Each structure stands twice: as C-alpha cells, then as structure tokens.
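Figure 3 (text version): structure tokens given as input.
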C-alpha cells in the first residue's frame, strides 16, 4: 500500500538546519552533517570564491566544514549565520597567512576608475559584473556578497562584527562603485 504524499510528510518531516546541527552535535550522526553540507555548501563556496580565488575558496570551504565537525560544544540558533561567520573568519585567516589581506580605509574620496575601452571590449555582461565585484575593496565586496546571499544589514553587522551604520555605508559605497564601473544610471 502506498502512502499519500501528505502522510509521508507527517512521517518524515523536513528538519531545520538548527535541528540537524543539534542532532549532529548530540549523536555524531554524519547523515545530519551531510544534509547540512548539501544545504549550505554551494552558498558558502559562492561567498568564498567571490572574495578570493577558486583554490583559496576550496581550501577555506574545506576548513570551514572541518571546524564544524570539530566544534561539538555549542548549538547555534541561526546555523546559516554561524556557518558564514566560520567561513569568513577562515578566509580572513588564510588571506593573512598568505599576506594577501588588504587594509583599506573607506572615505568619500574613494573612487574606482574603470578603463572604458576595456569595458567596451567585454561583451559578456556577467563577466563585466563579476569583474566589477572583484574590483571592489574587500569590505565593500564582502557586505555586498552577504546581502546577495540573503542576509539583512543587521545580520551582516553581526557576522562582520561591525556597526549597523558601517555596514550600510559599505553597501552604499559598493553600489555606487558598481554603478560607476558598469556605467549604469541611478
């Protein structure tokens, strides 16, 4: 006898990331971790590769999941934010280790100039957009990518340990710089 899809849902409800993490922490059930990896691996990789390169992103992603497996002492209320925080800190540590960390102060005079002849030579809009994002200073690029991943300004401020106003300012600078680089109007 086959069960209706509604009854199957009652017997096997979908588990929230928080419940999956709690089950993994308490029981060590690798199936729970596998489901978490399936849910968040691509988003974490996209975030990391947007801020670095393919090899560094892969290394940071692997280190992130290793840290998750080792950290069985706490259960977190927002697993997505917790995972992105671990990934961010891992990437920053690796960039510092490789002496590729850039310290940039943000001010009103910071303007990125784009060579128009290079922009016109690129026909692919996605490539132009990716190039523009890559040209942003690290902190602007980071908050912009976090927002593209669905985080609110308040969540980004918690993830980056920066004030709400600082995050808003960085987002504004990122958008303005992207508009300038892509030649779009307000």
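Below: residues designed for each position.
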């Amino acid at each position: 006898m086959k069960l209706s899809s509604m009854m199957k849902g009652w017997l096997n409800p979908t588990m929230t990331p928080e419940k999956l993490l709690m089950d993994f922490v308490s029981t060590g059930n690798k199936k729970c971790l596998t489901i978490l990896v399936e849910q968040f691996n691509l988003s974490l990789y996209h975030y990391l590769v947007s801020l670095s390169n393919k090899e560094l992103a892969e290394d940071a992603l692997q280190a992130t999941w290793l840290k998750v497996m080792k950290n069985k002492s706490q259960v977190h209320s927002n697993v997505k934010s917790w995972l992105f925080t671990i990934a961010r800190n891992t990437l920053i540590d690796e960039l510092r280790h490789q002496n590729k960390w850039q310290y940039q102060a943000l001010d009103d005079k910071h303007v990125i100039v784009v060579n128009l002849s290079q922009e016109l030579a690129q026909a692919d809009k996605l490539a132009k957009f990716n190039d523009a994002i890559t040209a942003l200073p690290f902190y602007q690029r980071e908050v912009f990518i976090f927002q593209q991943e669905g985080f609110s300004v308040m969540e980004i401020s918690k993830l980056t340990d920066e004030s709400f106003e600082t995050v808003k300012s960085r987002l504004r600078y990122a958008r303005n710089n992207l508009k300038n680089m892509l030649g779009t109007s307000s």
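Confidence is low (pLDDT under 50) at residues 1-12, 104-123.
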